Structure formats: C-alpha cells, structure tokens
Amino acid sequence: xxxxxxxxxxxIISRLEDSGTFMVTAHExxxxxxMLGHPAAKEAFTPDTLEKLQAIxxxxxPLDTHRYLLEKARSVEKQVYHPLLRTLRRYIQAKSGxxxxxxxxxxxxxxxxxxxxxxxxxxxxxxxxxxxxxHLRNHAFMSTRLQNILSLESGFVDPKVTDTILxxxxxxxDSRKSEALIEIIPMYNEELSRILYAFSSFEKDxxxxxxxxxxxxxxxxxxxxxxxxxxxxxxxxxRVRVVEGNYLKRRMLEASTKALxxxxxxxxxxxxxxxxxx
Length: 278
Hints:
Elements: H1 3-18, H2 26-35, H3 41-44, H4 47-56, H5 65-68, H6 84-94, E1 97-103, E2 109-123, E3 128-135, E4 140-145, E5 149-155, H7 159-176, E6 178-184, H8 192-198, E7 203-209, E8 214-221, H9 226-236, E9 240-244, H10 246-262, H11 267-277
Antiparallel strand pairs: 1-2, 1-5, 2-3, 3-4, 6-8, 6-9, 7-8
C-alpha cells in the first residue's frame, strides 16, 4: 500500500465523514435503487424522502441480481426495519416523553409506563432493535425490544427533569463502558478498509504511527458487546492483536490455548505452522 492509499483510506474519508459528506460509487447507487424497490422501503422512508431518492437515482440502472445471485433455501427472514423506528426517532429528537405498554419474558404485560426515550440500538448478534429508555416512576434505565412494545404514544417530561435524567444515564453508561486497543499488524495494512469495516458497529478512534507504519484502533465497548467484539477479532485472525483490554486478552488466550490442546499442538508447533503459512 503506497502513501496516497493510506491517506485516502483513513484521513480523507474521516474528514469527509466529519463534514457530513459521503462518497457514493455507481455500484452503491445501483444497489440503493434496487433496495428502494423492496416493499419495506415504503415503511422505512416518508413518501417525500422516497420520492426524492427515486428522482436522484432515476438515471441509474438497478442491479441485475438474477445474473449473479442464486437464492437457496433459508430460514425465516428478520426484517432490519421496524415500524416503530420512525416514531421513536421523532420522539428522541424532540426530547419528548413516551407512554408505552410492553411484554416481558414471562409473558406479563406492563401497561401505561411513563418514560424518557434515550437511544435506539441495533443488536448485531440478535439482529433486533432495542429502545434504551429511562423509567420515570422506577428511576431505572431500561432496554426493551421493539418487537415487545405493544403500544406507544408521546408523553410529557418536565424539561427541568430532562437534564437530570441525561446525567444519570451518562454516568450509568460510563460505568458500563470499557476500552480496548487493537493493533493492526503492519503487513496487513493493505486490508485496512476491510479490518475497519469489521469494527464499524463500534464507537472507535483510529490512530496511525508513521514511524512504525502501524494502525491502532481504540474501541469503546459496552458490557454486553464484548462477546461480539471477540467474534470480530477471531474473524480477523492474525491480522490484528489486542494490545490493551485485559478481558479480551484473557479470552483470546483461553481460546488459543484450548485450540492448541484440542489438536495436540504446543506453542512451538504453532510457531512452525505460522512460519510455513507465511
């Protein structure tokens, strides 16, 4: 990877993102036009937005999926979009309260619960949307699956109370958050875009050391996201190394030790295998 490619892959793209500018390829435009033809597009976008997108993409050709894709038998599809997303986004932006009814695991239903919606979060593991909200009566921070919400309407929250709620939520989330530092092995710098994409669902900062030609990714991890981050690190294999993050380092060491024991190999055998594969 030459110097220009490194700058293009990280510095320029990050600056464009900070300014709200997005670079879109012809392939991505074709993909978007194809997706707008899906029935779920009418629910995901307002009529005005959908009409505007279709007008912008009028000159683009949709993807010819019949030539390149062959669909085999599969399990029941889970829709990424949920009908409540648009309504909840509007409430969150307006800093409005909510009154909701929802069911819990044992089948019980809680009705007329007053709360303050904080954030919408998508679980990449369970492939479901969650509403993070503050229960006004119980003074508890809640996480509720959107599919478990039976009814939803706007409610009132005193603006004077809003700041107090946000401070409580912020303190709670900070106490649950940890950071991990992941180093990209320099010989795999040419795969930088692919590696960063693996961490795209996490809050992160990317640092580059020109002297050692090394990229490091500082990832913020919530308590329930650690296992998902571990799966991404395992997927990337020898391309990355956990530099900081005791829990992640310990889990990676345990997994590696179990794998060596399972195949009757020791550290020296692993080193020889590494040399042969390089």
